[in-house]
Write a structure and sequence with these properties.
CATH class of the largest domain: Alpha Beta
Structural class: alpha/beta
Shape: globular
Number of domains: 2
CATH superfamily of the largest domain: Type I PLP-dependent aspartate aminotransferase-like (Major domain)
Helix content: 40-55%
Strand order of the largest sheet: 2-8-7-6-5-3-4
Length: 402
């Protein structure tokens, strides 16, 4: 008998279902199936040429070795300026730490402010990025879901936040613009959240603001800019979404108290982010912003296109999101029309029968009570793909209705 086993922590570790579905889509494509995919959240644009050129120059210039774990000084300074100017804050380079993407800082933060097995609680949005809950559990803390309501534009009721905070609450995760709904927290939303948190000084805030420069309705606002919130907020941002650099793996966070702790985590794990990618990210932040602005304009146009088309599909009801590049249509009626038990069955049937890949709401946590069924589209896809994908869904729904 084999005595080897994996740990309970490994067995409980969650995943990001966008990658699971993507693997399924790639398998079907390899089998010869024609699939229009809306499942992965990454820009479909190339990284700007001047950023590519900076990476090539770094390679040719011998930038091949380790950097300090916190990142190269010029990039830390540029990230401080970029994050600060957008949020109306004065951020210094010593507050900033560079990582291999923004995602690792979710785990680093939870590990830094909660103690394993002590019953410390972390509140996070539901639906939400699945790595939040996965990392809470992996780090031995207690996950506490905070439901987002469609009727509130996929924000949450501050009273529900207040009801979930206990003496054991150590961290609140906020995500704006939001994945998967595209929802945006307004300045007034953040003021109300801050008002609740002032009664609970032991609670840190992880502000996941990776989509901060992809806002289409209203203005981006950060809770770090609200009175009394700066010191306790970990501002998380990065190059992936703004500059089409997902594979370059560069993220950055800012928090004066935790910067030395994050630096030690990086020393213990990845040593440092890729030096070549860091010089490329420096060019992205300090060079021409023309490509990123054009990309944002295209995403805005695509948002308007997919929202209009989805609202013409029988049984679909789709609100226009304020930011990011996701839509989260309500498909409760669509499920009834086709006889699907829920959104996950609808997703599977769209993939197998219509050749369209999306994600269902259960890939982002438990369904919010009384909010119905939803699926997620990433509109980081061409106009032609959006039009063809929605055409296929419409044909599928019309056939099912007949």
């Amino acid at each position: 008998m084999n005595a080897l086993r994996t740990s309970k922590r490994a067995d409980a570790l969650g995943t990001e279902n966008a990658f699971v579905v993507l693997a399924e889509v790639n398998r079907l494509i390899a089998e010869g199936r024609d699939i229009v995919s809306f499942c992965i959240g990454q820009p479909d644009f190339p990284t700007p040429i001047h950023v590519q050129d900076a990476a090539i120059a770094a390679v040719r210039g011998g930038k091949h070795g380790y950097t300090p774990s916190a990142g190269i000084d010029p990039l830390r300074a540029a990230a401080a300026e970029s994050m600060g100017s957008l949020r109306g804050l004065s951020i210094t380079a010593d507050e900033v730490v560079i990582g291999a993407g923004a995602k690792p800082f979710i785990g680093y933060t939870i590990a830094s402010v909660t103690d394993y097995g002590a019953g410390d609680e972390v509140i996070f949005p539901v639906p939400g990025f699945p790595i939040y809950e996965s990392q809470v559990i992996a780090n031995g803390a207690v996950p506490v879901g905070l439901p987002l309501s469609e009727s509130r534009g996929f924000a949450f009721d501050p009273a529900e936040l207040a009801a979930r905070i206990t003496a054991r609450t150590r961290l609140l995760i906020l995500n704006t613009p939001h994945n998967p709904t595209g929802g945006l927290l307004s300045r007034s939303d953040l003021e109300a959240i801050a008002s609740v948190l002032r009664e609970h000084p032991q609670v840190w805030i992880y502000a996941d603001e990776i989509y901060s420069r992809l806002v289409y309705e209203g203005a981006f606002a950060s809770i770090a800019a609200i009175a009394g919130m700066r010191e306790r907020t970990i501002i998380s941002d990065g190059a992936s979404k703004t500059y089409a650099m997902t594979g370059w793996r560069i993220g950055f966070v800012a928090n004066k108290l935790l910067a030395p702790v994050f630096t030690r985590w990086i020393t213990n794990t990845e040593s440092c982010a890729s030096q070549i990618s860091q010089w490329a990210a420096l060019a992205a932040l300090t060079g021409s912003q023309r490509d990123s602005e054009l990309m944002k304009q295209r995403f805005h146009q695509r948002r308007d296109l997919i929202v209009r088309l989805l609202n013409e599909v029988p049984g679909f009801r789709c609100a226009a999101p304020g930011g990011a590049f996701y839509v989260w249509p309500n498909v409760t009626e669509a499920c009834e029309i086709v006889g699907a038990a829920d959104s996950e069955e609808l997703r599977l049937r769209l993939l197998q029968q219509a050749g369209v890949a999306v994600l269902s709401d259960i890939h982002f946590g438990p369904r919010v009570e009384k909010d119905g069924q939803h699926i997620r589209f990433s509109y980081a896809a061409s106009d032609a793909a959006i039009e063809e994908g929605v055409r296929r869904i419409t044909a599928f729904m019309q056939k099912a209705r007949r």
